[in-house]
Design a protein that fits this description.
Elements (H helix, E strand, L loop, with lengths): L35 E3 L19 E3 L19 H7 L33 H14 L15 H18 L3 H15 L9 H16 L6 H7 L6 H14 L9 H12 L3 H13 L11 H16 L7 H7 L3 H17 L7 H5 L17 H8 L2
Antiparallel strand pairs: 1-2
Helix pairs in contact: 3-5, 4-5, 5-7, 8-9, 8-10, 8-11, 9-10, 10-12, 12-14
């Protein structure tokens, strides 16, 4: 199973030297509509002795100012308390009353206070309620006058590269995309501001999740001084005010870890499920998927491709809260996405998971198997 937290990134503390912070220059966001020009690329951000291949030498023309927030329609739900009252009561699945055939996956955790086994089912019940309170609407960019789904995809593909080069936690990436989408569905953003919103989302998520978060000057540098510290900090205030300082929306990773434990899967299956979830991030048509359902669909497909016991048994149904019929449309869509992942222009996730750190999971032959082709064709 994956390491949940990487606390050995002390190198992120302190001021960065431009001579050692290279190779994080963003890939040209041509779809956003800004002009590009050549820029030099030097060294590695993390270690002076490490050199990686240049992933793009073009940059956007700097935008010198941050425009004020539009007086557009505010958040999806104005009164969260009112919405909470209308929510259905989700069963907390007390382990004292497990149905026949359902394994108690927390039985060995009773003596470990860090795993809070006595509260864990109530915690996931709460998380499932939160994802209902803070949804992303289907086609949530329809009200944006200048931003399109393609622009969003290009931006997120670049954010994935930045996240990987900064060696940040997995939670940071998912939270950054969540913050980005929640802001875009409630506030109008000009074309020239989109990348500023994206990099600010990553900045906010880093401060929330990381033990040693990158400084604002690091985010200024990776945009090649397109934005100043003051502009990023000002956008941070604007975005947090729009989101009412509420960053508590659950992430797919939270549910995947619980599902992987229920399925008793190994690291390879878990990593493949992570790849399937992450490759969806750039897909605008999939932005509205509930985190819990996406996690269940990803694990189902990963088990189907890599294990003999691929059935979605009673234990997995119980702890995920979903049956196969519930998430099968997402599974079929996932198959369509992974078939084109390697050939797409936006392949930051595919390239990332092709490394040995992730078992070269994006290159395994099972992703092109007849099972995937048949499921994709049936969508």
């Amino acid at each position: 199973m994956e390491t949940l937290r990487n606390i050995q990134n002390e190198n992120l503390l302190g001021a960065r030297n431009k001579a050692t912070a290279g190779n994080l220059l963003r890939k040209p966001l041509r779809g956003v509509g800004n002009e590009v020009r050549n820029i030099p690329v030097k060294g590695s951000f993390r270690e002076k002795a490490t050199k990686t291949k240049d992933c793009g030498k073009e940059k956007l023309v700097p935008v010198k100012s941050v425009r004020t927030r539009s007086e557009s329609k505010k958040g999806v739900f104005q009164d969260v308390e009112e919405l909470k009252k209308s929510l259905p009561v989700i069963d907390s699945h007390s382990t004292k009353q497990l149905p026949p055939g359902v394994e108690n996956i927390d039985v060995d955790d009773v003596e470990n206070p860090l795993l809070v086994s006595i509260y864990i089912n109530d915690i996931y019940c709460y998380l499932r309620n939160l994802e209902v309170i803070y949804p992303i609407r289907k086609h949530h960019l329809q009200l944006q006058p200048e931003v399109t789904g393609k622009m969003r995809s290009i931006l997120i593909d670049w954010l994935i590269q930045v996240h990987f080069k900064f060696n940040l936690l997995q939670e940071t990436l998912y939270m950054a995309v969540s913050i980005l989408d929640r802001y875009l569905q409630s506030e109008k953003v000009k074309r020239s501001e989109l990348q500023l919103v994206g990099v600010t989302s990553m900045f906010i998520a880093s401060k929330y999740e990381e033990m040693y978060a990158p400084e604002v000057s690091d985010f200024v540098y990776i945009t090649d001084n397109t934005y100043t510290k003051q502009e990023i900090l000002r956008m941070e205030r604007v975005m947090l005010k729009s989101l009412k300082f509420d960053l508590s929306k659950p992430l797919p990773l939270h549910f995947l870890r619980r599902n992987s434990k229920a399925g008793n899967v190994d690291a390879t299956v878990h990593t493949l499920a992570k790849y399937l979830m992450e490759v969806v991030l750039t897909e605008y048509d999939c932005a509205h998927y509930r985190p819990s359902m996406l996690a269940a669909a990803a694990l189902y497909l990963a088990r189907k491709l890599l294990t003999e016991s691929s059935s979605w048994n009673d234990t997995l149904k119980f702890y995920s809260n979903y049956s196969e019929e519930d998430f099968m449309p997402i599974v079929k869509n996932l198959c369509k996405i992974i078939l084109k992942a390697g050939a797409s222009k936006l392949k930051a996730v595919h390239t990332k998971y092709a490394g040995s750190k992730f078992f070269k999971i994006s290159c395994i032959p099972q992703l092109k198997s007849s099972i995937v082709v048949e499921l994709a064709a049936s969508n």
